[in-house]
Design goal:
Order of helices and strands: HHH
Strand content: under 5%
Oligomer: single chain
Structural class: mainly alpha
Largest sheet: none
Helix content: 40-55%
Distance between the termini: 28 Å
Shape: extended
Length: about 55
Amino acid sequence: MAYRQLALWLCVGVSLGKGNRMVLPACCVLRIRHEFPDETYVGFREVQEALQMD
């Protein structure tokens, strides 16, 4: 929800959704992850690493 609210705030008047996405500033993403930690989030994994874990 925090990511969506930030995107809506940054892109007033722009329609966002499937096919129309935007990259959020890294500093904002890191702050959101700090404020709202998720124990299940593992971040980006290389393809081979992801295949070995499944």
